[in-house]
Amino acid sequence: MCGICGTFGENQQRSIERMVSAMRHRGPDDSGILREDGIALGMTRLAIIDLTPNAHQPMSNPEGNVWIVYNGETYNFLEEREILRKKGYPFKSASDTEVVLRMYEAYGDDFVLRMRGMFALAIYDKRRGPGKDRLLLARDHLGIKPLLYARGGSAFLFASEIKAMLASGLIERQFDPESLRLLMTHGSITQPRTALSGVKMLLPGHRLIVESGKDRMERFWKLDTDRILNLRHEPYEGQVEIIRESLQESVRLQMVSDVPIGAFLSGGVDSSLLVALMSQISGARVKTFSVGFEEEGAHIDETDDAGKMANLLGTDHSRVVVTGKDFRDRVRHIALAMDQPSVDGVNSYFISMAARKAVTVAVSGTGGDELFAGYPWFRNMAAAFPADGKKDLIRGAKDFVSKATRSEAFNSIVDTRFGGALERVRGSSGFVARYARQYQIFGSRGACRVLAPDIKRSASIGLDPYYDLVSTDELSFASTIERTSGLCLRNYTQNQLLRDIDAVSMAHSLEVRVPYLDVRLINVALSLPDETKLGGLQSVNPHPDGTYRETGAKRILIDAARHLLPEGIDRQAKRGFGMPFDTWLKTSLKDVLDDALSPATLRDRGYFDVEEVQRIRNRFLAGKISWGFPWLLIVTELWCREVLDRPHSGYVN
Q1: Backbone angles phi, psi at 143, to 5 degrees
Q2: Residue 72: φ, ψ to 5°
Q3: Of 118, 245, 287, 444, which residue has the fewest beta carbons closer than 10 angstroms?
Q4: Which positions ≥6 away from 499 have C-beta within 8 Å?
């Protein structure tokens, strides 16, 4: 696991040094820089596989004409190395980085099709001679690892983090207005946009080739259904066994490590199943971690459940208590660690900080809800779009009106007294439009109100959230549950969960692995019929807040876990991980709230409407709205102070 960066097209030796320095938290074990005419590559390494100097990066082939900087893990590297050995390729290290480099030599740009893991990488190839050299960037299938890129003057540059891009001195320190609109609407920034104007995130499953002064974007993978032929028609018992085997294989592959490995354990189905498999595969006590709170967070504290599960599974468990004072003491570093503002990530920050004291790698249950219909959004969408798909004249007219009102011609109405009615009509019909409203913070109308006039003039104010998500609807042809899975993975999971987890875990030099998002397991899950994931579809909403048994959520995953987990695991309700923000922002962090949302601060920053923010602040303190609204505004201001306002020659912990 590393931080990678580089410039291509002109010499920027001082830039590369600053970029590497800004990411030393991502790789405290080693660092390296390649400088040649027209190219500079840099890396900071968190050593996970092959701890020797043989795995140093940037790494080259024996001829020195192909170089790689690589962030991630290729879990099938041992299998691929044996194939390459038989082809005659020698190896000097035991690292997966060298295997990936050799795969590029052997298979060309399609080497990424053979990779099973999480990765963001850059390969510099000068084999064709002066003026014909090329740079290839690639990012894993689901976007577990980040990779940003931009043009700075005549140079093309890339990095794992915004802090490194800014440290280059080649990027303007300007918050992109459109990204600010997206952030306020959804709670995170929709990729490929980033917080910075002119800086993009390489989309998952894509590669970018730079040669002859031109950029070429290519997609190498996308979500699809029925890649496992005929699985949909297998008996249910056989489908359960295939899920069990696929998950076991994913966990086994992701336990390959030369450093200590542990797991986040909430006591829920997803993390408990992973820990049970880890214990079974390793035959040793797995180190597990959970986050709990004092009295103010007792109502959302899951650590009793986690502790009971840890006892049953025989893990070496640590319960970490986070207080309001802890949050207050770390809030500036949290904003810095996020690398880009988000409404989420604080929980992952604290559990990563605790885990890093004992392990270098931690396994997370992220992805289980997305693949096996764990979120309530799945049942909501199933209720709105039943399998028979029948439409009457009233439904058809409703669809027509809803679609018509999503036209940009109506955007100016959003911020008027008719805006609420318009929003209801816009979201009343259409799959993507309805899904877009399953999870928002301010939404389209709220974002319109909270942003300052100057920002509004530069952003797509009033744009229906449908347009933010429609390009990610990769499974538009599929069933309701499959289509919802695709939208979850390409939006909430990609833009918020995975991006936040990477940023805050790497701030503590911790690698987080996500076995549910193994590419083979995804293909298996998307080859199953809907009723295996969400049981009881004939009565789509009998117990919306009930147990897994009552709602039918994660049916096949729970059945696959029955031989490993305690009887009655499906009698628990689905609970998202929460923190007592509501209390903390009114007590321990009240001074932070008052400062970040003061009229003077807001006027100086110029991003938000002063009167609207004061209304939000007062309504929150009066208990009329939830913490997410003020916190998103606060963390945006704190991020600007810690990242955007401060020139970075390095990372401050």
Answers
A1: 80, 35
A2: 140, -165
A3: 245
A4: 143, 146, 188, 191, 340, 342
